[in-house]
Write a structure and sequence with these properties.
CATH topology: Lipocalin
Number of helices: 2
Order of helices and strands: HEHEEEEEEEEE
Structural class: alpha+beta
Strand order of the largest sheet: 2-3-4-5-6-7-8-10
CATH class: Mainly Beta
Number of strands: 10
Helix content: 10-25%
Strand content: 35-45%
Length: 149
């Protein structure tokens, strides 16, 4: 009889251990809010791109930021942007994104699926654009965008 009492007392600990080991079930998650029009407008325009600087590393760039072949970002409808990138063969592939706001960052969710990229504004009027690795922005391999005049 004493064993049944011990088993009953240990049951919550066993369940909690199992949940921690196997992972907690997914619950409701907060979705980032949509960026307002002023925030979205910040990213519109023509941009020269280059690899972002990495602290502790020397940045070596074969060609600096180039406004002769800029990345172009336009807004075809409220809340979304289209980013086109020039290729060496002259083509300009495009991708459409919904822009969100999450703290100081701006997730870009590819339409119709998401999430995809994350932008972070810089003090000099440019921004960094990073891909996602395991659900986190990869700022070490971000692309720096400098506005073309």
């Amino acid at each position: 009889m004493r064993t049944a009492g011990v088993q009953r007392r240990l049951l919550p600990a066993v369940i909690a251990s199992g949940l921690l080991f196997f992972g907690l079930p997914d619950g409701p998650r907060a979705e980032p809010a949509a960026a307002d029009e002023a925030e979205l407008t910040y990213f519109l325009g023509r941009w020269a791109t280059e690899p972002a600087e990495r602290p502790g590393f020397e940045t070596i760039i074969a060609r600096g930021a180039d406004c002769e072949r800029p990345v172009e970002i336009v807004s075809p409808s409220p809340g979304s942007i289209v980013r086109s990138v020039p290729r060496r063969d002259g083509s300009r592939p495009m991708a459409r994104f919904s822009v969100k706001r999450f703290g100081r960052d701006f997730p870009w969710w590819p339409e119709p699926t998401g999430p995809g990229l994350v932008a972070r504004k810089l003090d000099d009027g440019g921004f960094l654009l990073a891909g996602l690795v395991a659900g986190r922005a990869d700022w070490n391999n971000a692309i720096r965008h400098r506005r073309c005049r």
